[in-house]
Amino acid sequence: MSETDPSGRLRVTEIFHSLQGEARDAGRPTVFVRLTGCPLRCVWCDTEYAFQGGQWHAIDAIVEEVARYKTKHVCVTGGEPLAQKRCIDLLARLCDAGYTVSLETSGALDVSDVDARVSRVMDLKAPGSGESARNLWSNLDALTAHDQIKFVLADRADYDWACGVLRERELAQRCEILFSPVWSKLAPRDLAQWILADRLPVRMQVQLHKILWGEEKGR
What we know:
CATH class: Alpha Beta
CATH superfamily: Aldolase class I
Number of strands: 9
Distance between the termini: 26 Å
Helix content: 10-25%
Radius of gyration: 17 Å
């Protein structure tokens, strides 16, 4: 269910400055805007604290807070940020302000209205997440080479499922593909060996922020 406010505000869990831990910009200093709320309940979710709570902030105030960190890159994340309809307005405002903007989204909600300047990092849910039935497959038609598709994999069954989707839907011809192991569930070395053995056209990633800060909230 969307959490919206007619006065042009968004419910925000936190805004913080850190290194991007995943995707194309891993390692870059980034300001994270974590919006509150998510309609999914992935069994391995590491941001459950963003499901509820948070505080309402005007979009102007969010943009002003982002500017305080003097950093070019901004990532809007959650929870599921698109669960709040005014997330679309925030993304456009950040782009207008000259930031390089990425959106981390589950892929369960429509991404077609997201500003084309935003890099959509769309997470296709594997069976091990418990939420694979929520994948909105029509989203694939909206993606371009500017975007990224992420598979978070808990075990070999998830990997085999992702390989099938990669092949059947020709995803590597659409945009960059990321395979990531669930932290503490799938050994990164195992995933690396599978990718190499199968000659997959994907990028493997690990969560840099967890290597640096462990399970610390907000990283």
